[in-house]
Amino acid sequence: LPPQPPESSWSFVAELQQTPLHRPFQWPERSARRNEADLSQGVAIVNTVPDPDGALETAFADFQFFLDCAKIPLVAADAPGAFVINITQSRRCRKAEYHRLRINARQCNICAADNDGVRRALVWLEEFMQSAQGPFLPKGDHARTPFIRDRISRCFFGPINRAPKHRDELNDDVNYYPDEYLNRLAHQGVNGLWLSIKLRDTVPSRLIPEFGNGSPRRLAKLRDTVRRCARYGIRIFVFCIDPAALPLDSPALAAHPEIKGRVAGGQAAFCTSSALGQAYLEEATRELFSAVPGLGGMIVIPVGERFTNCYSLSADTQNCPRCRERTPEAVLADTLAAMVRGVHAVAPEALVIAWPYGQIIAWGRERGIAAGSQLPPGVVLMHNFETDSTKVQLGKSRPCWDYWLSHVGPGKLCEDASRAAVARGNRAFAKLQVSCSHEIATVPCIPVPGLLYQKYRAMRKLGFSGAMYCWFMGSYPGLMSHAAGLLANEPFPASETDFLQQLAAITWPRHPRQLVKAWQFFQKGFECFPATHIFQYYGPVNDGPAWPLFLIPRELPLAPSWLLRYPPSGDHINECLASNFTLAEVTSLCDSMARNWRKGCRILAQLRDDYQNDPEHLREINLAAAIGIQLDFAANILRFYQLRQSLRSGAAGKKTLQAMRDIVLREISHSERLCLLAEQDSRLGFHAEAEGYTYFPAKLRWRIKQLEWLLETEFPLVAERLDKRQTPFPPSTLKRCDCYHLDRLPSDNCQEQRCEHWLAALPATTSSEYGSGYEVIPTPANSPQTSWLASYDDNSLFLIVNCQGDNASQPGQRVELIFEAGPCPTRRVFTFTLGGSTTTKRDDGYIFREQLPWTVNIKQQNNEWRAAVTIPWQSIGLDMDSPLPENIRFALFRYTQLANGRSAVNSWADAQFTKPRLIWAHLNPATDYGIIELK
């Protein structure tokens, strides 16, 4: 594979840092209309709004530069023909950012509640002139007040302060917030930016002096960042997942054992029920906001993402001696209350925003919703807007998780918990993905502003007053960010079409009607994005341009779209399916996406000649074309594997093979087109969370060679086999699977199978995030023995699992049974422990669902325990109205411990774990499954 492009080649960074927002306008010559004021003779600005800190200097400088680009002179108020802009402070309306424009033929009177209102008013004047394509303003009375008062985005190219690079932007000398970039954000209504910190690295502590190494440097840069951004009316919010759990060998735990809480996975929660825990949180937040005056607030994930407080992982009874006597709600409330006390002691206007990201997983739906009514005063509740929602596609209701732009929401969790918080007097924010999301995060933005209109309409109805625009991806300051800024205001546009026309008039004033039509086609297509987050994470839309294709099956795993440390995605296409989607359904939806997107692109292509001297608009036309190519890639890849599944010998097989060959030829052509576009636009292929490129010109050329190799080698081989009426794929190319012939009950011929394959966990010192963390080992001496046998009837599968060995009675042992079967052959995992506890996962493990019906009866005697398992076929995913399949992919893992203390896995198939992947963990579909054949 070609290496990643160096950061020095990220030319989009220099563009954002240096390219002026305004360029000389080439407006058509015309006279003012009857309802327009004419500014062409010159503008005089008379400002009486106090500005002791100089916060408006950048706003006036920008407005003057805009007038220069428009060739409108700045003149004295008494100059002949002067148009006077009078700026005063409102005495009646004190709502933040309120601004009113009264425009007549000779003057515009701006009345604003505050400096930010003045800034927004000047930008509004610019937008009026851009829409008019001339130095003209609409006469009349115009007023706006944002109902979304806090609009928080993120630096598009800022470090994420986590793997893979672990770079902390407060610990380097790079300026991530240059003037031109901030000016662009301010024009789009952004008034907050978040950046990542770790509390214990950033703030010194007198209570826990082990914390705070390197804090002076970090705090100094944070102060400088706050100062830079404040010049543009933008506040900085620190984001953290705190108080973070500590390794059991942490010096802080040794010195202060009272903060040691729940123990899990080699770590101890930071116990916020302890007096020291409470005092530290209050001290750390107080010191942070004291050391950095003007900090806008903090965004904290207190539950559901990483191990922090004692109830952050689950609401179950636990081993912390203090928190086990308390409810999860009480512990969470005390955690947040301590932070609020610390922040508001020195910065009463700063916000403490609680983002309980995965609370529905950790606590369940009912507790997650109820927690919204138990927040301490002063805490802002922010939920992912779409979590716990459904979307009907192809006649079926599909459960949705988070990070959606194509799906509007709101989810039940967000809606109900936020209503409860607002009723209690707390504010509620929405966590959105404004510019793009995991659906397609390898382009800067997806031009579907109508979907944002629908989201903001729902947010307004629910009483939301703020929004976080993005995770690490989705923050590019383009069309969608601009749309979000406009939508944040009252009066709210009366209809979606009205809003699109308003946005198009500002951003594409020469062809607004065509752009509205193109956006509507894009939206119609994008709404067809398969509504399952697994397809976001592992599907071919993000990085399909870099996927090799495999005619002869390998069943290789798919790669996470937001991480670069994995090999290119393989061909086990089931891994991107969930929510009861079949491959045919997902393929159909992607075909609809691509087809409608092409319709929008055809409209924009007709405008290309008109923008040959307008590189910014021309680049957006090319961006839409690139997105269209990526959607074509996705549809082609899915169709290719759908055809591969149906490939049979004979004449029909030859026709199918030719269709697959045609797809490969189209993929080569698309790769060549995208390569040209990517050479012109360094934004394409860049994934902000990955901190690098999922595709780039050299990788696209690598893929072209792989596809050409496929045509030259595998296609002739398979064609020859079809000519000879053989099976399409040579048996020698397929891994030999362990196979079990399953007898129907009643049967006396159930054969016992031994689990003879072993993997052992690597020591933490030798393991890394780039490896699986396990190594294949020979069968250990005196190893525990695991065996199983099975049978079935029309309704269920029956298994007997025997676990033997000196350590058979050790707590913590578990057995996993994993199946892939049925019309939607996605993973179903059934887990049981020696103690008899059971869990199930279907599809993805994220969506909150009832447990699948199955039973486990365990009998233990001496050094052996036997589990009798009954799993209904329906729980495995089979359609009971159809005949049972001939075979089912099946894996059995026993997690145990060897005599030397090493954690180990005993497997039926010859497993070779992969690097751990979100949702799929270590499962390697190429090696870890065997086959159950139904006689």
How would you explain this protein's 3D organization?
- This protein is α/β, with parallel strands linked by helices.
- The protein folds into four domains: 31-146, Chitobiase, domain 2 (2-Layer Sandwich), CATH 3.30.379.10; 150-243 and 274-506, TIM Barrel, CATH 3.20.20; 525-732, no CATH class; 739-934, Immunoglobulin-like (Sandwich), CATH 2.60.40.
- 33% of the residues lie in helices and 20% in strands.
- It is built from 24 helices and 37 strands.
- Strands 24, 25, 26, 27, 28, 29, 30, 31, 32, 33, 34, 35, 36 and 37 form a 14-stranded mixed beta sheet that branches.
- Strand 4 (99-103) and strand 5 form a beta hairpin.
- Helix 16 runs antiparallel to helix 19, helix 21 (651-680) runs antiparallel to helix 22 (697-712) and helix 21 (651-680) runs antiparallel to helix 23.
- The mean pLDDT is 94.
Which percent range fits the helix content? 25-40%
**CA-CA gap between termini:** 45 Å
Largest sheet: 14 strands, mixed
Taking all Cα atoms into account, the compactness measure Rg is 30 Å
Give the C-level CATH assignment of the largest domain. Alpha Beta
